[in-house]
Each structure stands twice: as C-alpha cells, then as structure tokens.
Design a protein that fits this description.
- By secondary structure, the protein is an alpha+beta fold.
- It has two domains: 197 residues, Ribosomal Protein S5, domain 2, CATH 3.30.230; 172 residues, Alpha-Beta Plaits, CATH 3.30.70.890.
- Helix 3 packs across helix 4 and helix 6 crosses helix 8.
Length: 394
C-alpha cells in the first residue's frame, strides 16, 4: 500500500488487516502525526528566527499492539520492509528504522517507561521531499510510546526529544521546526513559530486561497554535506556579529542596517548566507501580515523574493526547482510560490485561487514535464491538527 489514500476508513482498515496478518493479535493503539510545509522561513529555524509553517493533511499512521518482550517490530507498508530491534540495543539501525530506534532510545534516556510493541506504519507524506516525513514518523512513534506506557509528554518536551533523537542518534543536525510543527499544528491555521522562545501564534490564510504542493520529484538528501555547510556558514556569520556586540547572539538579532555596515568584512560565502537569513527572517512577518490583509500583490512579491534569495544567496536550488518555479508562477490562479523545506530539490509550495486549483494543477504538470521530462506530483492540501491518537482508538 503506497501513496495517498483519500478514504480514511479504507486506510485504517488496511492497516488493521496488515497488523493481523503480521502479528498474532489485533492492534490496540493507533496514532497519527502530520507532515508540514513552510510557507516562509527557509533555514531560519537553526538561526533562532521565525518560520511560517503549515501542518498538512498528509500524515503518518501507526497501529500497534504491546509486546510481552522488550523488542520493537514495525512493518512499513510504504516500503514493504520491517525494522526490528531490542530496547537495550546500542547499535543504531540502518535505514528508516533508525528514526524509530532513535526516539525509543531518547525517551528511555529521559526516564520514560518504553514498552515493546508490534506495529504497522503507513505514510501519505512523500519521502525525501521536504515535507518532514522523518519528523512525522518521530512524533508518531513518541505518541505511540505515550499510549503504550500510559504517560503524557508535554508538547514542547515531545518536540524537543524528537529533535534530540534526530540530532544525536540519526545524525541530522536539524532545527526544531519539523518536530514542533508535527506536534503543535493547528487545523485551519498556519503557525508563526518563534524558534528562540519555542512559542507560536496562529494566523489565518484567506479562505479563497488553497495551498498546493508541487513536488519536483527531485529528492533531497539532508545528510549530505550541503546542509551542514550552510549551517556552519551561518554560525560563522553569527560569531562575527556576536564578537562586535554580545547582544547579537544569532543572525536573528542582526538588523539589515547593521549587516550592510559590516557585509564587506565577512568572507564572501558567509556574507551571502547571512544576508539571506536576515532577509528571510523579516519575510516571515511580512508574509503573515500580507495574508491577514489578503494583499495578493505583496504575497506574490514576498514569496518570489524568498525563492530568488534561496537560489542566489543561499544556493539551495537545483535546476528542477527553477523549472517548477517558472511553471507555478505562470499557471492560472497562482498568487505566490516558493521553495519548501531545506531546498536541494523536493517539494515547493504555491498559494492558488481556490476556484482555479484544477487549472493550476493541470498546467503546472504539463509545463514542468515539457521542460524537464519529469512527471511532477501536484496536489492541493489543507491544514491539519498536530500529532495525536486516531479517533477509532480514543
């Protein structure tokens, strides 16, 4: 079973039947956690800045039953593979199972009662696409452990522990954006996340605009050197300004004016990366305000500036992303569009006039395929609540 399933009852029944085939009992617990797309704020999270993030109705579901042994066995219906490990294992698995094991190890290390289980997982979030499939899996696993162990994590602690699992065990030095979004998402709202205070406020999207995911089908690999290099360059920029003024702790604290005064003193690449982050951080509040005022000209300008900065200053683009941006920008009903996630391929996001969504999708697919020879995956989304228990199992 792969991809997106519109019928929730059918999807749940498929998971239950798969669990009963694989294991000697019916599942007693079911959880879900959503993916997310950032409407604005690329790479601002680890610079303690702001992100305008939207949890989406593409999500990860797990159904499971407790095991009498200290082992975890989880079957993926997407990948047709199984991960299995003992709770005391210290050698980290390869592949997707390391995310599951990392959450188990991190929660156990924090003193929570982790139980073994048999389970089946299915996700409608495309893998390696920039929609936080790994964070959704982590948050779903953490929620499952809560149910099996009869304990409740504070939401911020859950997000932080999932980030810790990815940082320290999986080995991806990500910020907290993905995990926070998966845990705190609000149905019907986008969220302005303050990555320093780890707090947020909800903001509305005009009711006649529809977010549309445009997957370039050019996969991303965040464990590659590019992500780490960008983060290191940002840290070097922050260190320069912190040496000037101890109140300038990260690039979030550096105003455009202060940056302009010192830009020439920075190494070229450090200056480029820092400039993008400072501008991108400001664009989060600008886009949130434009959405609240339904100022479509500003929405288009702000989102385009983000894409151009990501391409030219932060250099996280690939040719497929430029082709997709051109295809989206020229399609019917497009109010604004930009990259999503960390770049280097994967998904992009457009805000589209609702009554033109079908025409937009058809033209983007056609134009992009003519340009690249790649068949894109383009689909509308709605905002979703954060991680929790599936209704059937409440």
């Amino acid at each position: 079973m792969n991809g997106h399933i519109e019928n929730r009852e059918q999807r749940l029944q498929s998971l239950i039947e798969a669990h009963e085939r694989e294991f000697p009992t019916s599942p007693s617990v079911g959880v879900r956690s959503p993916g997310r797309v950032d409407l604005m704020g690329s790479h601002t999270d680890y610079n303690e800045g702001f992100v305008l993030t939207l949890t989406i109705d593409r999500d990860t579901w797990i159904v499971a039953s407790p095991s009498n042994e200290d082992t975890i066995t989880l079957r993926s219906l997407n990948l047709d593979s199984t991960c299995s490990f003992a709770l005391g294992d210290t050698e980290v698995l390869d592949g997707w199972g390391r995310y599951v094991q990392a959450v188990a190890m991190t929660l156990s290390g924090a003193g929570y009662p982790i139980r073994g289980f048999h389970g089946v997982v299915h996700s409608t979030i495309p893998i390696s696409s920039g929609l936080s499939s790994s964070a959704a899996l982590e948050a779903a696993v953490a929620t499952l452990f809560e149910q099996l162990g009869d304990f409740t994590l504070d939401k911020l602690e859950k997000a932080s522990l999932c980030q810790q699992a990815e940082n320290e065990i999986v080995g991806v030095n990500c910020g907290i954006l993905d995990q926070y979004s998966s845990v705190f998402g609000e149905q019907g709202k986008a969220v302005v996340l303050d990555c320093r205070s780890l707090s947020h406020k909800a903001t509305a999207i005009p009711s006649d605009l529809r977010p549309v995911i445009c997957n370039t089908c050019a996969p991303r690999k965040l464990t590659g050197s590019e992500y780490g290099e960008r983060r290191e360059q940002c840290e070097k920029g922050a260190a320069y300004f912190n040496a000037l003024d101890s109140n300038l702790k990260t690039l979030r604290d550096v105003s455009p004016g202060i940056f302009a005064d010192h830009e020439a003193n920075l190494p070229h690449l450090v200056a480029m990366r820092s400039k993008f982050i400072i501008q991108e951080n400001a664009r989060v509040a600008e886009l949130a305000g434009a959405l609240e005022e339904n100022d479509r000209s500003r929405i288009r300008t702000i989102m385009a500036a983000s894409f151009i900065g990501a391409r030219d200053l932060f250099e996280i683009g690939v040719p497929a992303m430029q082709s997709m941006f051109d295809s989206m920008s020229s399609a019917p009903g497009c109010v604004g569009c930009r990259q999503a996630g960390a770049g280097f391929g994967g998904c992009m996001i457009a805000l589209v006039e609702s009554n033109k969504t079908s025409d937009f999708i058809d033209q983007v697919k056609d134009t992009y395929e003519r340009e690249t020879g790649i068949h894109a995956d383009v689909y509308p989304i709605r905002s979703s609540a954060g991680s929790g228990v599936l209704p059937t199992f409440r």
